[in-house]
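Input record, target 12 of the design panel.
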C-alpha cells in the first residue's frame, strides 16, 4: 500500500472570499492557540494507524495557515513526527495568502520544516480581486513569490480561477501570461464553481453578476491547456499543471487511492481501503471535543465494493497522463470495465472524450472539460 499523507486543516482567514464554502472563520489569537494545541493532541492520540507507520507528505490547508506563527506550525509538525515515522525528503506544504507573510515569517516556516508553498493568487486583475472579496492585491502576489524565492523556497505553487464574474477571455489570457512568466513549479488552474451557500451565489441570484458562461469557460480551459503546454508545463491532472517532476505529491494521494489522515476541524480521512471519516466542522466545537476526549470524529462511512470500483475509476481518470490501467483495475476490483461499460465507452469514444491505448483508458482534452459527464457513467 502507498505511504500515507497527513492533512492539517487551519480554518482561520482575514476575510471570507465570496466564492468560498470551506470551513473557515475570522482569525482570533486566543482561539488559534487553543486550536493548535487541540490539533497536536488529536495527532498524538490518533489510533487508526500503526505506531511506526511512515508518512511522506504533510499538508497545511485552510483557511490561511500562514496566519499561524512559525512556532505554532513547528509544534504541529513535531506532533506528527512523534506519532508517525516521517520519511526523509517528505513534502511539507503550507498554504498561504499573498500579503500574509514577511521575509522573517517565511524563514521561520522554513526552519519549522516547510519546504513547499502554495498560495491563492486567483487573479492579477485588481477589479476581479475586489469582486471576490480577496484582501490582497496583485502586487502582493508578486512580492510574496519574490520573498519565497529569496528565502530559499524552490517548490512553489499558486492558484488561478477562470470564469470569474465579468471576466473576459482577454483578461484570462493576461492572467495566464503573468503566471507563466513568474515560473512557479506548479499551477492549479480552476474553472469557477458557484456553490449555493456562498455570497457569490447570492450576488448572482440578485442580478449583480451573470452566471458563468459555459462556452466561454470551455474556451478559457482550452487556452489554459495550450499555453501551459507551450510554456513547458505538464497537465498531469484535470486542473493541475507542473514543471517536470513537480507534481503535488500530497494531492496525488487523493487521486490514486492512497491513505491520508486529516486533523483539525472538517478534516477528512481515508484508510486506503474502504473506511472514511471526518471531523466536526465548527472550530470551537472541534476544540472542545478534542479537549474532552482527544478526538472530534463525527462521521464514518465504509465504501462497499461497488463504490470502491467506481471511485478508483473516476479518480484515476483525473490523472490525464496516467489514466487507468484496465488490467490492473480488473485484478484489484474484479470488474471488467470494457465489458461492464461497453456502451458508455463506445459513446464516449465516438464523441472524442476518451481514448483506450492498449490497456490504458484516458480522458482526451475534450473529455477533461466534460469529465463530470464521463464520471457519471461509472458511479
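The sequence produced for target 12 reads:
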Amino acid at each position: 500500500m502507498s505511504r500515507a499523507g497527513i492533512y492539517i486543516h487551519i480554518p482561520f482567514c482575514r476575510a471570507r472570499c465570496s466564492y468560498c464554502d470551506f470551513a473557515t472563520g475570522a482569525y482570533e489569537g486566543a482561539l488559534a492557540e487553543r486550536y493548535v494545541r487541540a490539533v497536536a493532541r488529536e495527532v498524538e492520540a490518533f489510533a487508526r494507524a500503526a505506531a511506526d507507520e511512515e508518512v511522506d507528505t504533510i499538508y497545511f490547508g485552510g483557511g490561511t495557515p500562514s496566519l499561524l506563527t512559525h512556532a505554532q506550525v513547528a509544534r504541529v509538525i513535531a506532533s506528527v513526527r512523534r506519532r508517525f515515522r516521517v520519511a526523509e525528503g517528505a513534502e511539507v506544504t503550507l498554504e498561504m495568502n499573498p500579503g500574509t507573510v514577511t521575509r522573517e515569517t517565511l524563514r521561520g516556516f522554513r526552519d519549522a520544516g516547510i519546504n513547499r508553498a502554495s498560495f491563492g493568487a486567483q487573479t492579477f486583475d485588481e477589479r476581479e480581486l475586489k469582486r471576490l472579496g480577496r484582501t490582497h492585491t496583485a502586487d502582493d502576489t508578486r512580492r510574496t513569490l519574490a520573498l519565497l524565492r529569496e528565502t530559499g523556497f524552490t517548490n512553489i505553487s499558486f492558484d488561478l480561477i477562470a470564469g470569474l464574474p465579468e471576466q473576459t477571455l482577454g483578461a484570462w489570457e493576461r492572467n495566464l501570461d503573468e503566471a507563466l512568466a513568474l515560473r512557479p513549479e506548479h499551477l492549479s488552474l480552476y474553472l469557477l464553481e458557484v456553490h449555493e451557500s456562498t455570497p457569490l451565489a447570492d450576488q448572482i441570484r440578485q442580478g449583480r453578476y451573470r452566471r458563468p458562461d459555459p462556452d466561454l469557460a470551455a474556451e478559457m480551459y482550452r487556452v489554459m491547456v495550450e499555453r501551459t503546454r507551450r510554456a513547458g508545463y505538464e497537465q498531469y491532472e484535470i486542473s493541475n499543471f507542473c514543471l517536470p517532476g513537480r507534481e503535488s505529491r500530497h494531492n496525488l494521494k487523493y487521486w490514486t487511492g492512497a491513505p491520508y489522515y486529516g486533523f483539525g476541524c472538517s478534516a477528512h480521512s481515508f484508510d486506503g481501503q474502504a473506511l472514511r471519516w471526518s471531523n466536526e466542522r465548527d472550530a470551537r466545537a472541534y476544540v472542545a471535543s478534542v479537549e474532552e476526549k482527544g478526538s472530534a470524529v463525527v462521521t464514518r462511512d465504509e465504501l462497499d465494493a461497488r463504490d470502491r470500483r467506481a471511485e478508483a475509476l473516476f479518480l484515476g481518470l483525473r490523472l490525464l497522463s496516467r489514466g487507468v490501467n484496465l488490467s490492473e483495475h480488473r485484478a484489484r476490483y474484479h470488474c471488467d470495465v470494457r465489458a461492464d461499460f461497453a456502451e458508455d465507452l463506445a459513446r464516449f469514444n465516438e464523441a472524442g472524450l476518451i481514448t483506450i491505448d492498449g490497456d490504458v483508458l484516458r480522458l482526451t482534452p475534450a473529455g477533461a472539460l466534460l469529465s463530470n459527464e464521463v464520471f457519471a457513467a461509472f458511479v
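The chain has a mean pLDDT of 91.
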